[in-house]
Write a structure and sequence with these properties.
By secondary structure, this protein is an all-alpha fold. 64% of the residues lie in helices and 0% in strands. The longest helix is centred in the middle third of the chain and has 22 residues. The radius of gyration is 36 Å and the shape is elongated.
């Protein structure tokens, strides 16, 4: 069981990974789906070979002289006209036809028998499509069945042996469409029933199942559907008519009973595993449970709804293990994979490890075997003791996963990633191997290193996860070449950047240093070689972090190293338009954004910081204290771009929302310095400015307080306002005739509001 400390750290990691610059929405790695038992469009890329045994049998017929895909094109895509061109040897007009290995095989071997069969099969498909078209209106000839009858007669007249079963399949298709059900049964019983198993026999049996289905003999129909390679809606209609409607787990059991290798089973299993995953995801991978969630919440299902449905998931887990033990399935690794995954979701990671280890030794498709290995790596990371031995053990696994991402990256994935900004900014690539690497490194390994106080390794993981797909797709070069998108600095839309906001500054410095050294172990070098390396980027962030804690001397050291043009690449450059040392209560004065904005601010603040402890003259000290406090106050309010990379919704009102600890501390320090100025200064003009500054500090909160933006929707008496005391002092006899108060009366709305309310 995880310790409370570990769970808290995991919860922090969720917060880290969802706090992107400019509050852009993002997915946490915990939201990526892990379980894929069938090769759907949005999962990993298709395998080089398919489960289409019909095409595999054609490929065997050519002694593998033709490729799987070329045969598929000819059998499923070519038209009657295309086949007639092949029969006539006229392929010069089409580049695709000339290059097709199956076409070349047919021409090279002069295989007229195969070509004639394929022509008849395509004629049959065309005639059947016309007959079953809901818009078809029969002509006199059609009523006599002459179109399909001719095909039926030709199919039955075939005297050869090579394509005997295939011709009988076309005869059965034609007879079934014509309603000649008795003929279908006779063909089956006499010529096909006792044939060896093949894709053609399975397709024929599907038609026989359809015959008995239409006759209402549902059990007989089910028995025939069991011999097919597909699960039709008719099969389920028969099941539902023989007994009351079954649960989803029971339907899996029924289908397995009749078709232990049905291609529908992986889809059904995935649907249930995905349902469980959606409910348990954040609990298992991010250590998070929403105490306010409902067990019946269908829109935002969480762990409570998982517990409510746990018995279903465990029933599927136990049945999966039973299937493996019965040895009837040709893909036992898939069932063992499901059992391991459901066991992991249920919280028993040690048993899940045992199950997935067995799955790795079992027979399965390439797709399943790869996914089994991914889950094995994930469980190893989940259970591992994070030491050198663990790192040496898991490194080859992570290298394999990284290689899978490289070799399975398709042009379509690259295009989507490059040009659909939501995928890059939201970190939801829909590219399985990349997403799984992110899930393993960010959701599992990174919190473990944080728990061990090894923030540098945690940053390595975040750095690699942030940059790897950008490197593989060439994103940085593409965005550089596309000037319309060049204003967005993507460095600030990463998991690494989010981690910087939470990690100690010393860890960031060590991380930037180890990037230069390249790392001291194979484990470190693997990650560092894939991280982003831009010294201006790291120097800018380190300097900003130093300014957040008023360490201006250290900040200047790093700001001075940055190229003068780097500022202009920042997303916040356009907000460098306020002078942090002007007096905003006299009206904000805008300036033209220019490079060196932060450096100029830090230099001025360092000068003031150094003066304060040394100066004796009370006048100089009071003005230095006022300006230093004003510089802090402006940096955490309208000059927010000095210290952060986004304008928080409640920036400047840290007492209300606890935006961040350093901001609250700076805010309070600014108020202390301005109040201290009032105490040490005898200058009424300077004191009036301090009262105005105090009113400004609380200004936004006061405005919302009085006008009900966050509270009551009516005018509150000014005596209830947070700025009441400051306003009274400014208008008192002592300060009423200062230049500051007189100017404020003419320029400041809040003073005017006060006078009106009086």
């Amino acid at each position: 069981m995880k310790s409370i400390k570990c769970i808290l750290l995991l919860a922090i990691s969720v917060n880290v990974l969802s706090s992107y610059a400019c509050y852009y929405p993002t997915y946490t790695p915990g939201e990526y789906y892990v379980f894929y038992s069938y090769n759907e469009k949005d999962a990993s890329e298709p395998e080089p070979s398919s489960n289409d045994t019909n095409i595999s049998e054609w490929q065997a017929y050519t002694a593998k002289q033709a490729t799987f895909e070329d045969i598929r094109q000819v059998v499923y895509k070519y038209s009657i006209h295309d086949m007639e061109q092949i029969a006539a040897g006229n392929t010069d007009s089409s580049d695709d036809m000339r290059k097709n290995t199956f076409v070349n095989y047919l021409l090279k071997t002069n295989d007229t028998e195969a070509v004639k069969y394929l022509i008849l099969a395509k004629q049959c498909e065309e005639a059947r499509a016309k007959r079953t078209d809901p818009w078809w209106y029969p002509t006199k000839d059609d009523l006599d069945n002459k179109d399909l009858q001719v095909i039926l007669d030709q199919a039955l007249a075939y005297q050869g042996t090579t394509f005997k079963t295939r011709y009988l399949l076309q005869a059965m298709r034609a007879a079934f469409t014509m309603g000649e059900h008795d003929l279908c049964i006779r063909i089956w019983e006499k010529d096909i029933k006792n044939q060896p198993g093949s894709s053609i026999k399975a397709m024929c049996e599907d038609y026989i199942g359809g015959v008995y289905f239409q006759r209402g003999e549902y059990q007989t129909a089910i028995n025939h559907y069991a011999g097919t390679m597909q699960t039709s809606s008719s099969f389920w209609w028969c099941v539902d008519n023989l007994a009351e409607k079954k649960s989803d787990i029971e339907r899996i059991k029924i289908l397995y009973q009749y078709q232990p290798n049905s291609m529908e089973l992986p889809r059904m299993i995935q649907n249930i595993c995905r349902e469980a995953e959606k409910r348990a995801n954040l609990k298992v991978f991010d250590g998070y449970i929403d105490e306010n969630e409902s067990e019946d919440d269908e829109y935002n299902p969480g762990y409570k709804s998982y517990l409510k449905n746990r018995s279903r998931y465990m029933e599927l887990r136990d049945f999966s293990l039973q299937v493996v033990s019965e040895k009837k399935t040709a893909n036992p690794a898939m069932w063992q994979y499901a059992a391991a995954f459901l066991t992991l979701l249920d919280g028993d990671s040690e048993k899940a490890s045992q199950y997935i280890t067995k799955a790795e030794q079992m027979k399965g498709t390439n797709f399943i075997k790869n996914n089994v290995k991914v889950l094995s790596i994930m469980i190893e990371a989940y259970n591992g003791k994070y030491n050198k031995a663990f790192e040496n053990r898991i490194l080859p696994e992570l290298q394999w996963l990284d290689q899978m991402a490289k070799t399975n990256l398709t042009p379509q994935i690259t295009e989507d990633y490059l040009w659909y900004e939501n995928q890059m900014f939201n970190n939801y690539s829909m590219f399985y191997y990349n997403d799984m690497m992110r899930k393993i490194t960010l959701s599992i390994m990174m919190p473990k290193y944080i728990e061990q106080h090894d923030e540098v390794k945690a940053l390595m993981l975040a750095g690699m996860a942030s940059e790897r797909l950008r490197t593989l797709t060439g994103y940085r070069q593409a965005i550089k070449e596309n000037t319309n998108r060049g204003s967005w600095n993507i460095d600030f839309y990463t998991d690494l950047f989010c981690a910087f906001e939470k990690f100690p500054i010393e860890s960031i410095i060590k991380y930037s240093q180890i990037l230069k050294s390249g790392g001291s172990t194979k484990f470190e070098r693997f990650f560092i070689s894939k991280c982003y390396k831009n010294e201006d980027y790291f120097n800018e962030i380190i300097a900003t972090r130093y300014m957040q804690v008023e360490a201006f001397e250290e900040a200047i050291e790093y700001l001075s190293r940055i190229d003068t043009t780097y500022d202009q690449t920042l997303n916040i450059f356009c907000y460098f338009d306020h002078d942090p040392f002007d007096e905003p209560y006299f009206g904000i004065k805008y300036i033209t954004p220019a490079p060196g904005y932060k450096l100029r601010y830090a230099t001025r603040m360092l000068d003031l910081q150094r003066i304060l402890p040394m100066v004796v003259d009370p006048v100089i000290r009071s003005y230095a204290t006022y300006h230093y406090g004003q510089g802090l106050m402006r940096a955490v309010t309208d000059c927010w771009s000095l210290l952060r990379y986004r304008k928080g919704y409640h920036y400047g009102r840290f007492g209300d929302d606890g935006f961040d600890d350093w901001g609250h501390a700076m805010f309070e320090h600014a108020k202390e310095l301005i109040n201290e100025t009032i105490l040490i200064s005898d200058d009424c003009e300077l004191q009036a400015k301090c009262f105005a500054a105090n009113a400004w500090i609380r200004g936004d909160a006061d405005y919302e307080y009085r006008y009900g933006i966050r509270g009551n929707s009516h005018w509150l008496p000014l005596k209830d306002s947070p700025t009441d005391k400051n306003m009274q002092l400014l208008l008192s006899e002592k300060y009423a005739f200062t230049a500051t108060t007189q100017q404020l009366i003419t320029e400041c709305d809040r003073i005017c509001f006060y006078l009106q309310s009086e």
